[in-house]
Amino acid sequence: MSITVKDVEHVASLARLELSEREKEQFTEQLNAILKYAEQLNALDTEGVEPTSHAMPLINVMREDAVRASLPIEKVLLNAPDEEEGQIKVPAVLE
């Protein structure tokens, strides 16, 4: 399988990119080099290798959920830029 200049132009069009002729040629060469390198993987003996979704086993490192008291509102409001009636006041973002 190889990439043509027409393929590069099609993808550039989908991505709304304007490429010069030199860039089209350059991307065609680079993408073909990537494909050629990837074809080398077909030469590897993968018999007996179990398919994986990750190279390393994933372990959940998050702590267990535990109910605990939150900060008192007075402490929270100390960090707020502005406060009104016990709530953080922010600038309006809608017109």
UniProtKB/TrEMBL annotation:
Heterotrimer of A, B and C subunits. NCBIfam families: gatC. The gene is gatC. Allows the formation of correctly charged Asn-tRNA(Asn) or Gln-tRNA(Gln) through the transamidation of misacylated Asp-tRNA(Asn) or Glu-tRNA(Gln) in organisms which lack either or both of asparaginyl-tRNA or glutaminyl-tRNA synthetases. The reaction takes place in the presence of glutamine and ATP through an activated phospho-Asp-tRNA(Asn) or phospho-Glu-tRNA(Gln). One of its GO terms (molecular function) is ligase activity. The keyword Oxidoreductase does not apply. PANTHER family: GLUTAMYL-TRNA(GLN) AMIDOTRANSFERASE SUBUNIT C, MITOCHONDRIAL (PTHR15004:SF0). The lineage of its organism: Bacteria, Bacillati, Bacillota, Bacilli, Bacillales. It holds the Pfam family GatC. Belongs to the GatC family. It catalyses: L-glutamyl-tRNA(Gln) + L-glutamine + ATP + H2O = L-glutaminyl-tRNA(Gln) + L-glutamate + ADP + phosphate + H(+); L-aspartyl-tRNA(Asn) + L-glutamine + ATP + H2O = L-asparaginyl-tRNA(Asn) + L-glutamate + ADP + phosphate + 2 H(+). It comes from Paenibacillus allorhizosphaerae. Keywords: ATP-binding, Ligase, Nucleotide-binding, Protein biosynthesis. Its EC number is 6.3.5.-. This is Aspartyl/glutamyl-tRNA(Asn/Gln) amidotransferase subunit C. It comes from the Bacteria.
